[in-house]
Specification:
Blueprint: H1 23-26, E1 39-40, E2 46-47, E3 54-57, E4 66-69, E5 74-77, E6 83-86, E7 93-102, E8 113-114, E9 117-118, E10 121-129, H2 135-139, E11 145-155, H3 163-169, E12 178-180, E13 199-204, E14 215-220, E15 224-227, H4 228-234, E16 261-262, H5 269-282
Parallel strand pairs: 1-8, 2-16, 11-14, 11-15
Antiparallel strand pairs: 3-6, 4-5, 4-12, 5-7, 6-7, 7-10, 8-9, 10-11, 13-14, 13-16
The structure holds zinc ion (ZN).
Residues 99, 101, 124, 207 line the site of zinc ion (ZN).
Transmembrane segments: 264-285
Pfam families: Carb_anhydrase (PF00194)
EC number: 4.2.1.1
């Protein structure tokens, strides 16, 4: 079927499907010039003072969401009550759903990469402009959708705040399976607000077909900790054909001249060395005599 698309990990001789390089067969927009994800080269980012901290309204609201294996990922619908503003966004945006992208048993799996580093998993909280009521309408507006992206890092201890999600995964291993989760809030899934002032910003697209280019992307620098055991549970999920749902990320796409901006707090990795040298000079450490 022409609208069928799959990740590279799903392609076999027995099951030939439209892998990311062929997603334009599923939807022509996937061959566009402003596609996501991208690799963020931190030394090429431009500091933008308009990228002030976000305001998160009702992010602490507790809700009982339904988590679903949609055949490509796990997705949770969010009541349209949580609203983001500030952060250099042109409008306020309300949360619609969140989903994740991951690798194989805790291996590389994020969609965006930072200076070439691929993290084990990436969370996308999808928002639409406040006055819209459905995502399809919002996607017709070039600034209709704002996605907040968060990276994960492997921690030694389990992140208990993720128990409702991790526990539910065991019940939705097959495609279209869904279950009501224990109550959660968006706040409990992301780093503390004081660690969310450092982020990157660029204009891009959905990372799955239709690949619509109407997304304002924000990638936060501060990662979410999750233990290796917790990450491994995601690899127990199955694609429609019963194969392990792993490698659910699109490869990075060309920038095609786009500028990536960073908020005041975001670090440029290349300048860290310079900073150390500057501090050492200031302290007189570089000239021991
Ligand atoms: Zn996504």
């Amino acid at each position: 079927h022409v609208s069928d698309w799959c990740y590279q990990s799903q392609f076999t001789c027995d099951h030939q499907c439209n892998v990311p390089d062929k997603w334009n067969h599923a939807n022509g927009d996937c061959a566009g010039s402003y596609q996501s994800p991208i690799n963020i080269v931190t030394r090429k980012t431009l500091k933008d003072d308009r990228l002030i901290p976000f305001q998160f309204d009702n992010y602490q609201e507790i809700f009982r969401g339904t988590i679903k294996n949609n055949g490509h990922s796990v997705q949770v619908g969010v009541p349209h009550l949580s609203i983001i503003s500030g952060g250099g966004l042109p409008n306020s945006y309300k949360a619609v759903q969140f989903h994740l992208h991951w690798g194989n048993n805790g291996g590389p799996g994020s969609e965006h990469t930072i200076d070439g580093e691929q993290y084990p998993m990436e969370l996308h909280i999808v928002h639409m402009k406040h006055h819209y009521t459905d995502l399809t309408t919002a996607l017709a507006d070039p600034e209709g959708v704002a996605v907040l992206g968060f990276f994960y890092e492997i921690s030694n201890s389990a992140n208990k705040k993720y128990d409702p999600i991790i526990n539910a995964l065991r019940s939705i291993k097959t495609k279209n399976a869904n279950i009501s989760m224990s109550p959660i809030s968006l706040t409990q899934l992301i780093p503390n607000e004081q660690n969310l002032t450092s982020f990157y910003r660029y204009k891009g697209s959905l990372t799955t077909p239709g690949c619509t280019e109407s997304v304002i992307w924000t990638l936060f620098e501060s990662p979410i900790p999750l233990s290796k055991d917790q990450l491994r549970v995601f690899s127990e999920l199955k694609f429609h054909d019963g194969k392990a749902m792993v490698g659910t990320f699109r490869p990075v796409q060309p920038l095609n001249g786009r500028q990536v901006y960073r908020s005041g707090g975001a670090a440029i990795l290349a300048s860290a060395t310079f900073l150390v040298a500057a501090v050492a000079t200031a302290l007189g450490l570089s000239q021991p005599n």
